[in-house]
Amino acid sequence: MTEKQHEPDDDLLRALEVLNAADAGGDDDPEIEAALRTLARLLPSASPRQDFSRRVIAAIQRAPLSPGRRKLRSRRRAIITSLTAAAAVIGTVLWTTGFLRIPVAEIFLLVVQSGTLAVRSVTFMLDMLRFVDRAARVLTAVLTSREMLSVVGTAAFLSLLSVAALRRLVSSSQPLRQRESMKC
């Protein structure tokens, strides 16, 4: 064999070098694509362990920073901590003196009553939807059957006729003065 066989580590290092030098080159460079394919082929296909991300974050936090750099800290962290501590102290004082117990109890009662009202409203809406569904089924059955439609039509006509007759009877039994006073 005249040619030297390449180890997978050599291919991996060469691909990483190509990608490191790629900052100056374009994105559609065939050399970069070949390096990415090599990396995809050489890297293990098994999923990392479940604690992989936690271990990586812990390693990053333990790693020393380069000279001239310092760890990032929130500027507002001290302010938020002091405000939280002050609110906790004030809340504890108000709770122990009894000033806060009544408003907290009222707020809790309001939350419970609102939740109960919401549950009742939802239950009522579901019952109404069931009623409307049943009524729609009955109306559909009635309106699609000729016999039932004729019965319902006859009942409606007789109801209107009886209401008109009752109205006429009531209006004729009233004295004339009452009818005239009602018109005014």
Structural description of this entry:
The protein is an all-alpha fold and 184 residues long. The protein has 3 domains: 8-62; 78-127; 145-184. Helices cover 75% and strands 0% of the residues. The protein has 7 helices and no strands. The longest helix is centred in the middle third of the chain and has 44 residues, at 101-144. The mean pLDDT is 80.
Helix tally?
Answer: 7
Rg from alpha-carbon coordinates = 42 Å
| Multimerization status | single chain
Helical coverage, percent range: over 70%
* SSE class: mainly alpha
Write the H/E string, N to C. Answer: HHHHHHH
Mean pLDDT, as a whole number? 80
The beta-strand count equals 0
Q: Identify the overall geometry.
A: elongated
- Tally of discrete structural domains: 3
Q: Give the distance, in angstroms, between the N- and C-terminal Cα atoms.
A: 124 Å
Strand content: under 5%
Ranges where pLDDT stays below 50 over 5 or more residues in a row are none
- Quick one: biggest sheet? none
